[in-house]
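U., I forgot to send this yesterday:
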Amino acid sequence: MQNLQKWLLKIFRVSKVISLSIWKFTKMHIIPLVILLSKLIWKGVLQLYKLLSKKIIPFIYAFYKGLSPQNRKRLNISFAVVLILCLTIAFVLPNFNQHIGVSKSQKELDKLVDVIVTGSWEEQQDTVKEILSSVGITYAEDDVPQNNNALFVIPPELTLLTYDASLNTYGGRLTLEDLAYLLRDAGFPFKEGEDPALIMRNGVSAWVKKAQDDPKQDGSMAPLFLQAMAKAQSPSISLEKDDWQPQDYRMTYLEIHVFLGSILQAVREEETKTSMIDWLMPKANAADAAGTCSIAKDWFGDITKQEAAEISTFKIDLVNFLISELIGKGFDSISKEIGKVLTSVGIGLKVLKLAMLYWAIEVKVEADHAEIHKQGINEKTKEVAYKAIVGVNEEKYQQYLKQWNSSPVAKEIRDCFSFIGLPMPTDTGDIAADVENWSVEWDIVHGGGIHAYVGKNNVFDLPGQFQMSVKRVSKNKAEANFLVDIIEENNDHEGKEKRNIVTVRALVETSAPPALGTFLNGIKLGYGTHGSDNPVFDLLSLTSAIADVVAGWFQEMVEPEAYGFTHVVYHEVNPDQYAYEGVVRVMETVYDEYDDTIETVYLVAKGNIRAEYSVGTQHGHFWNVSGFASSEAKYSFQYGEEYENGCVGGTVLINSQSSHSGDASAQMNMRGKLTIRGSKEEGYTSELNLSGDNSQIIISRGTSTEVRIAQGCDYVRSSNWSDDVEYDTMYSAYFPNLYSLQMPADGVFPKQIKGSHQVVDGNKVTIWSWVLARVDKK
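Result:
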């Protein structure tokens, strides 16, 4: 107790000394300075009063008095009009500092995108600001927007948005398919029973079409901008058409920001209006009152569940149209789902901003062949090499880091992150030191299996995974090479010339971005599963359940990726261009021999056939075959006999022979299928299957008998005799069904298809042969 009293006494004495020192300093320096400034201000006010009262006001009064009554009246009216206009601007007209009704045609937006891709750095940044402003997103450098509900971007963010968008031709952070699945995981109420990626594709396509129908309507800038960016990427796509897939549209950070921001700002439109009074006398930041991270919370575009529940519709009809397309419900039903829409879109924006926060590494893919002509069937396989160049853009990244310190708003957000323990962007030296741990994961995202496949000469880190480590080539750069084998043409450079694109993606995996999933999971363990009293969860408005979604998609978005392209030239036969015509023959022989009798039946058929292309699948190419055949049946019977016949002088051996023969023919239809299968490696084969109608024919069989006797001998029964007999036999003339074996073929559309086939079935032998020639139908 005595020690406590001593400490309190010491504190009192120190406080007294400090107080006296402060009072002395104030008395000697501060108070005299304040008195001096007050005297100067008062003196200035007196001088101004004298000037007004003795010179300016008398002059104005004299001037006014000197006017004629008519001119005085005119001056009074003019003064009243100016006063009314000023009051209107000050208190009535909203959005003095906002872009109202900004609209541009599709051609104008195409030009803006061209500036983003090819313009100077200043032009690029100004254009990005214009695009963001058109959807209600403000650029905040020195101060935050006066309305807390307005979305805004900060200088380092603008730098990255601009730089990433300038790489649109070969870049992309997420595909539209990825964005659809991100929103689904965040709880977006997509139409049930359908793939969210296809719903998104159809919805965006319809959204763009509707905006193009009337570019002047509110909200048209966002869809028209996305269309312009999709058109500028390679390969180019038109979002309003139906010939693209959701994975074909690669979105940069800017496109994702515009898409999500246009939805969020559509519910804040009325709240973001400000008057001239607010512009002239801006409100002070409420950072101190709301806490250290209030500006950062606004930067993330926070919308609480309570706020979302109070919103019943979007203020922009075009956004209402988009959402109704995505959720599969009419305008009247949107209010029931708008809370889920806003919450999930808000989560998507948080993932985007977190990913942009940790941007550092970029990647570019170069192909050694911008264009290549496919090899023919018997030519050597061609190869394309893609090089991924991974590194740090020193100039842009240093500018990015500097802006976190130079911009007052960015600095406040950075201080918030430091306060709650969220990792901040690191220096290039720290990033480059880890190059040896980087790897590139390759994939053929377009044209694989049709025009190209993963080359056999690649060396991957693990079998079955297209991932390889990079090799350092300088302080801040590394490389990896990927080989692609070109698939040969189906024929030897015949047919119409066509072009397509092989697209290769290089996804870089590094340890540079923070393991946000691990970071958030650690926070969950430290603060409990609900994240109570958790500053990070509070800043991001996260629940424990949604933290995993944010962490997973953050890692997906933050990993840099780039695309390489090769235009493939090849010839393709139009299925309607060629047909096959030719002849097929068949001979069937049934041979019976017993005792002294030989009986033979011959069936000979010859047909003219034509094959028309039907369909091509992964199992082969198929032609429908039709034709007309003539079938002829021949019958032959031979009988021989030897016997003794009495005659003068002894017994003589008598030889007797008889034969029957006949033929007939019939006409019949044929039908079947021609199939060609295979590949260059395995070889191509053809198969011909045919069947024909049966016809009943009558064979007239003639019989002749001849008896020979030895010379000089008398017959007991009769002398020389000969007897001819004819009779008819009903017989079937048909075309034996052909199921051919696989015959070698020179490609999918060979100039000639030929083959033969023999089947032996007991005493029946059937032999087919055919020759078909390719015919140009045009």
